[in-house]
Write a structure and sequence with these properties.
The protein has helices at about 5, 10-30, 40-60, 65-80, 95-100, 110-125, 130-140, 145-160, 165-180, 190-210, 215-230, 235-260, 270-280, 285-305, 315-325, 335-340, 345-360, 365-375, 385-400, 405-420, 430-440, 450-455, 465-485, 490-495. With about 500 residues, it is mainly alpha-helical.
């Protein structure tokens, strides 16, 4: 094991070894405490299950897909064996408990994430994302700074077409490593470290800017639709978030070159090396052309929702998948798709929605919100103060999470209830929830805070210390930018 990994792995191993036991102890302990006044037994048990889930996700006591199975089983019996307040002396029953456990899979957000996984599988099969990345890098130039900008730009462009952060980073990492090798640059150099950190962080940043770029955004959109009755369009999200992501991309460049100055200035013949890699791909295949056309058409439907048509994002994406899978006209068969799709991710996503929905339906969210708002002094605070307070809370709690999707599933339904229970007049609950969802994507500080970070960290081109030294100032800038835009641009849009 290398020195670059040894400082992280032992700590993670300890967490994984005891995570499930700690989570079970918390679940049993909280469940044995009598339900507080005003909280139903089912709601009390759902809050205990929420604590169990958070501990399990933070410690990675079991794999994420397995955690979804455990949560489904526990939810079935915890709700099923709870008294039904609508029927005196009767229980909900395990049938109703299982219905609640599987409710997330009927959510349109779950359908969108499933469809997104198909698009990512199609990109992997055709190699279109690799061609796009190499094309951008071949144009941008061969000085160290230009290559860094090129990597950030690739993260931006791929975010429009590949709705999976891990897939985007997994595509770009081998390309960047190939460039480092072809240029004859040492993997332990500052230049290599900056390129791989930029690869991970740029994708995290553009998770904020584009609604369809990350699964956690779909969780938030789903809860906003469920709890507030409003469906945020792709363009509404983009107008609000893209300027933020653009400013953060600029900040990322300057933070990286300032804190880890590249130890090379220009790579002789670098552009030609990239062009050779691009030429090695050969001409675009029929499948690549079809996928590019479908992706552009899909982007058109996303951006024109509620302007030229009323087809929602999930429905248009599902239609695109139908074309991709159609015999003769399509890009891949079912057999090809199922081998490339991480079904466990989809299952966990659905369970996260189910857990959040159960917290809402049992009124546990309302009960918790009534305690959180006074605790943080938010009951009559201004929208600006509320955003900054809850944003700081989410940044701190994210330090313990290895999944933004898990964080969104655990916190967004509660955030919505907190905002609904604040008595400040004129509060835009939808807009403020959307802004706080941006903060959920701030996995900038530790490699273990996001799967894409770990993909890049696995290359052994940078240390934990280097990632933290760039991640802390990046997070501070991100938080200050939330404050700035909340007082200006987002206020002008009416979100705050």
């Amino acid at each position: 094991m290398s020195e670059r990994q040894s400082c992280v792995i032992p700590q993670r191993s300890i967490r994984k070894r005891y995570g499930l036991l700690i989570a079970l102890a918390a679940l049993i302990g909280l469940s044995l405490i009598p339900a507080p006044q005003g909280l139903s037994v089912a709601g009390h048990r759902m809050l205990a299950l929420l604590v169990f889930s958070v501990i399990l996700w933070m410690t990675e006591g079991v794999s994420y897909p397995v955690s979804g199975v455990i949560i489904a089983a526990l939810m079935t019996f915890l709700i099923g064996m709870s008294p039904n307040p609508e029927k005196a002396g009767a229980l909900y029953g395990t049938t109703q408990g299982m219905t609640a456990a599987l409710a997330g899979f009927s959510n349109t957000a779950c359908a969108l994430v499933g469809a997104a996984l198909f698009i990512s599988a199609a990109m992997t099969k055709t190699g279109l994302h690799r061609r796009i990345a190499l094309k951008i890098l071949s144009i941008i130039g061969t000085t160290a700074n230009r290559i860094i900008i090129g990597v950030i730009l690739v993260g931006l462009v791929l975010s429009f077409f590949v709705p999976s952060t891990t897939a985007r980073v997994a595509c770009l990492v081998p390309i960047v490593l190939g460039i480092i090798t072809a240029f004859g640059v040492d993997k332990s150099s500052n230049f290599a470290a900056v390129l791989l950190i930029a690869t991970a962080q740029a994708d995290s940043i553009w998770n904020v800017g584009i609604k369809t770029a990350a699964a956690q955004n779909m969780i938030a959109v789903g809860f906003i639709r469920q709890q507030l009755g409003y469906d945020i369009t792709w363009l509404e999200w983009f107008i609000a978030a893209a300027p933020y992501a653009l400013l953060m991309s600029i900040a990322l460049f300057f933070v990286l070159v300032k804190i880890i100055p590249p130890d090379v200035s220009e790579i002789p013949g670098g552009r030609e090396i990239v062009r050779k890699q691009l030429a090695a791909l050969g001409p675009m295949s029929a499948s690549e052309i079809k996928l590019l056309c479908i992706s552009i058409a899909l982007l058109f439907f996303w951006t024109t929702e509620k302007i030229l048509h009323d087809i929602d994002t999930s429905s248009s994406t599902l239609a695109a998948i139908t074309f991709m899978m159609a015999p003769r006209l399509g890009i891949m068969t079912w057999e090809e798709a199922q081998q490339r799709i991480p079904w466990g991710t989809l299952f966990l996503f659905g369970m996260g929605i189910s857990l959040g929905s159960a917290i809402v339906s049992t009124k546990a969210g309302v009960w918790l919100a009534k305690g959180i708002a006074p605790f943080f002094g938010l009951s009559t605070a201004s929208p600006f103060v509320i955003v900054l307070t809850l944003a700081a809370f989410l940044i701190v709690i994210h330090l313990g999470f290895a999944s933004a999707s898990g964080l969104a599933a655990a916190m967004i339904p509660i955030i919505i209830e907190v905002l609904k229970n604040v008595s400040t007049p004129g509060l835009n609950v939808i807009g403020m929830t959307m802004i706080l969802q941006y903060v959920v994507s701030f996995g900038f500080i530790l490699p273990v805070n996001a799967p894409q970070n770990m993909v890049a960290f696995g290359t052994e081109t940078f240390t934990v210390s280097q990632f933290i030294r760039t991640g802390i100032p990046l997070t501070i800038i991100a938080y200050l930018l939330v404050a700035l835009l909340s007082a200006t641009y987002w206020k002008f849009l009416g979100l705050v």
